[in-house]
């Protein structure tokens, strides 16, 4: 009876540890997926020159960094086309309602006149090592700020 109790207790402890470990992995996977989606939505926001698209996925702090770009596009009657040439998630860490996701990215950008469709700023490529700092607000991730690790 005692050995059976020890085995059952050991199995329960092992099961709990396994579930706790899976929870951490699930949170990290969720944060990684959010960052990938964020980049896609950011591409759409640039191509439409529309801040509203990123309002639900960014904090005010990050939106203040993006606002000048969108404002410049709108003021010049342009939109920005982008291509993500490379995107690699290097690591993710989640603790409570905060997460950091480190990436290696390569983007291509160019501006297009909304009326004529001509390229107004030529294609340009940039490589980044970024750290996305996320906050969970009302159960959903938001980008609080992005740190460029190359600077």
What are the key terms here?
single chain, 151 residues, alpha+beta, Nuclear Transport Factor 2, Chain: A, 4 strands, 41% strand
Task: Explain what this protein looks like in three dimensions.
It is a single chain. Mean pLDDT is 87; it is low at 1-23. Strand 1 (78-95) and strand 2 form a beta hairpin. The chain has one domain: Nuclear Transport Factor 2, Chain: A. The longest helix has 47 residues, at 2-48. It has a four-stranded antiparallel sheet. 42% of the residues lie in helices and 41% in strands. It has 151 residues and is an alpha+beta fold. The chain has two helices and four strands, in the order H-H-E-E-E-E.
Q: What is the succession of H and E elements?
A: HHEEEE
β-sheet strand percentage? 35-45%
Q: Mind summarizing the main beta sheet?
A: 4 strands, antiparallel
Low-confidence stretches are 1-23
CATH architecture: Roll
> What is the CATH third-level topology name?
Nuclear Transport Factor 2, Chain: A
Spatial strand order of the main sheet: 1-2-3-4
Overall body shape: globular
> Would you tell me the structural class of the helices and strands?
alpha+beta
Mean pLDDT: 87
The termini sit apart by 63 Å
Count the domains: 1
């Amino acid at each position: 009876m005692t050995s059976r109790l020890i085995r059952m207790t050991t199995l329960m402890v092992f099961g709990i540890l396994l579930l706790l470990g899976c929870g951490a992995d699930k949170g990290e996977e969720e944060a990684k997926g959010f960052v990938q989606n964020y980049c896609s939505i950011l591409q759409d926001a640039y191509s439409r020159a529309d801040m509203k698209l990123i309002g639900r996925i960014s904090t005010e702090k990050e939106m203040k960094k993006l606002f000048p770009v969108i404002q410049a596009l709108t003021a010049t009657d342009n939109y920005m086309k982008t291509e993500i040439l490379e995107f690699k998630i290097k690591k993710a860490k989640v603790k409570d309602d905060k997460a950091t996701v480190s990436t290696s990215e390569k983007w291509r950008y160019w501006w297009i006149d909304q009326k004529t469709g001509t390229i107004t700023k030529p294609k340009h490529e940039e490589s980044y090592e970024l750290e996305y700092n996320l906050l969970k607000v009302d159960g959903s991730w938001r980008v609080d700020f992005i740190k460029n690790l190359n600077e």
